[in-house]
Amino acid sequence: MAKKTNLYIIVVGCGRLGSKIAGNLSNKGHSVVVVDKHEDSFEHLSQEFTGFSIVGNATEIESLKKAKIDKADMVLAFTNNDNINYMVSQVAKEVYNTPHVVARIYNPDNVPLFKQINVKVIIPMLLAESDFQRTFEEIIGE
What we know:
By secondary structure, the protein is an alpha/beta fold. It has five helices and six strands; from the N terminus they run E-H-E-E-H-E-H-E-H-E-H. The relative contact order is 0.14.
């Protein structure tokens, strides 16, 4: 089966990470919709962002329906709250059968919950720890 070249992607959370990823995906030609409950968060999006933005609370199913979650190839749950990211991920996976779901989580103890519903995770603390180890080894020559 050929890879789909233009994905329909919903990004929930338009902070530093969500806005950066949304901009990059938009620049690559994907159709991107960003959902955030704070309208001023959309100021983080780059000038080149060509997608859509929806002011809404992602814990309310109507906001996700407005973003056309039923059409999404991928949902990125990038809020600053593990509980919200879990709920969005669970709805995407279990209610709408979204093929690809990725969540940012802050508490590594929550990894098993996300793995149970087949959601890929990004854990900033573990990424920073790994980068530090690499940098430390470069500095001391190990």
